[in-house]
Amino acid sequence: SKGEYRHYMLKEIFEQPKVIEAALEGRMSASSVLVESFGPDAQALFQKTRQVHIIACGTSYHAGLVARYWLERYAGVPVQVEVASEYRYRHPVVPEGTLFVTLSQSGETADTLAALRFAKTLGYVGTLAICNVPGSSLVRESDMSLMTRAGPEIGVASTKAFTTQLIALLLLTLSVSKAKGQPEQPEILAGLQALPSLCQQVLGLDAQIEALSQAFAEKHHALFLGRGAHYPIALEGALKLKEISYIHAEAYPAGELKHGPLALVDSEMPVISVAPNDELLEKLKSNLQEVRARGGQLFVFADRKVGISAQEDIRVLELPEVHEALAPLLYTLPLQLLSYHVAVLKGTDVDQPRNLAKSVTVE
Ligand code: M6R
C-alpha cells in the first residue's frame, strides 16, 4: 500500500536508500566486488568480454547510457547502447567477445525480449539480464542474470527501478574490471557503501524542491542539460517530467546548446541543469552563462563545493559531495522529486499517466 504517501511514485522515490542497500547486499565487501553475484560462469565470461552491447527501452535505456561511461572509464571496455526497438531491426555486426546485456524493470518488455532472442542468433559470448522481476521471461532466457531487488514498482514512472539498475551496472563495471585482472577500485566501493545515507540526505531536500516546482506549473516547455554521465541523467529527468506532468521537455548534452537549442531559450524557458563537481564543471558553467545571457531561467542542482551561487535568475539546490562515479545516482533523485511535485501541482494522475502502461508487452 501507499502507507503515509500520497502516491506510489513518492513512496517509491523515498524507498531508494533502502532498496539501494538491498541491491548491494552480499555483492561486495569493503575491498572487493563479488563477481559470482552474476552467477557461477560470470568470472570466465567477463574475462572473455572485449566489448558490451546494452539494449533496453525508456528509463532502462537511460541506465544503459550511464553504464557506457562507467564501463569505458573504469573497466576499459568499449560499449554500445541502443533502444531495443531499433536494435532488433538492424543488422548488427557483433565483434568476437561481445557481451549482450538487457536492462528491464519488468523483464517482459516486448521489444527488449525480441532483441534478446535475436541476439542469441548473432554469436555473442553470453547474455546477461539486469532485471527487477525474478523468473521473468528475460531472466529465464538469458545465460546470466542479476536482480535489482527494488521490490514491486507500482507507479508507471520508473524511479527506484532505475537507481537500482545503476547499482547493478556499477557492480557489473567493477566485476568486469576485476575479472580482467585490473586493480580493484576501493574509492568506488566505499562510495557505494556510503550512498544510501547520501540519498537520504538528498531526499531531505524534498520541501525545497516542492517550492521550486511552483515555477513550472504554468510552463509548456523545459530544457534539461548535463554533460558526460549526467547527460543521460538529464534525459531521464526530461522523460520523467513529460511522462507525468505532460510538460514538453527535452534534454541536451550542454555542449550542444549552441548547435540549435539555444534558439529556444528566452525568459519563458526553464533550464534545469545537473552540475556535479567533475572535470566537466567549468565547461558546464560556461554553458549556463550562455543560457543566462539569453534571459533563460536556470535551475541548478550542484555540488556544495562548486560555487554556483543563487541569483535572481539562478536557483541553486546544493547536493552533498559524492564520489564522481556515484554522482549520476545521487543527481537522479532531485529530478524525480521535481517532476513529481510539478505533476501534483498540475493535478495529473501521477501513478497512472495517460496513454501509458507499466509494462509494454506489445510492440
Ligand atoms: O520494464 P522495462 O524496464 O523494460 O520498461 C521499459 C520502459 O517501458 C520504462 O522504463 C518506461 O520508459 C517508464 N514508464 C519510464 O518511467
UniProtKB/TrEMBL annotation:
Q: What's the Enzyme Commission number for this chain?
A: 2.6.1.16
Spell out the catalytic residues. Answer: 358
The entry's cellular-component GO terms read: cytosol
Catalytically driven reaction(s): D-fructose 6-phosphate + L-glutamine = D-glucosamine 6-phosphate + L-glutamate
- What enzyme class is recorded for this protein? transferase
**Where does the UniProt entry say this protein principally localizes?**
cytoplasm
Specify the domain of life of the species encoding this protein: Bacteria
- Keyword annotations of the record: Aminotransferase, Cytoplasm, Glutamine amidotransferase, Repeat, Transferase
What GO terms are given for molecular function? carbohydrate derivative binding; glutamine-fructose-6-phosphate transaminase (isomerizing) activity
Q: Name one GO biological process term.
A: protein N-linked glycosylation
Domain SIS: residue ranges: 42-182, 212-353
Instruction: Give the location in the cell.
Output: Cytoplasm
| Main function | Catalyzes the first step in hexosamine metabolism, converting fructose-6P into glucosamine-6P using glutamine as a nitrogen source.
Q: Can you state the subunit structure given in the record?
A: Homodimer.
Q: Protein name, please?
A: Glutamine--fructose-6-phosphate aminotransferase [isomerizing]
Q: Which gene encodes it?
A: glmS
